[in-house]
Amino acid sequence: MQTNLAPEYQNTPEGREAEAILRKCVHCGFCTATCPTYQLLGDELDGPRGRIYLMKQVLEGAEPTRKTQQHLDRCLTCRNCESTCPSGVQYGHLVDIGRKLVDAKVPRPVGEKVVRWALKEGLPSPLFAPAMKLGQLMREVLPATLKAKVPARQDTGEWPTRTHARKVLMLAGCVQPSMSPNINFATARVLDACGIQTVVAPEAGCCGAVKFHLNDQDGGTAQMRANIDAWWPLVEGGEVEAIVMNASGCGVTVKEYGHILQHDAAYADKAARISALTQDLSELMPALLPELKSRINADVLKATGLQAYHPPCTLQHGQQLKGGVEALLTQLGFEVKTAANEAHLCCGSAGTYSVLNPDLSKQLRDRKLGHLQALQPEGILSANIGCITHLQSGCATPVRHWVELLDEALTA
Question: Is residue 364 within 8 Å of residue 36, measured between CB atoms?
Answer without folding.
Answer: yes
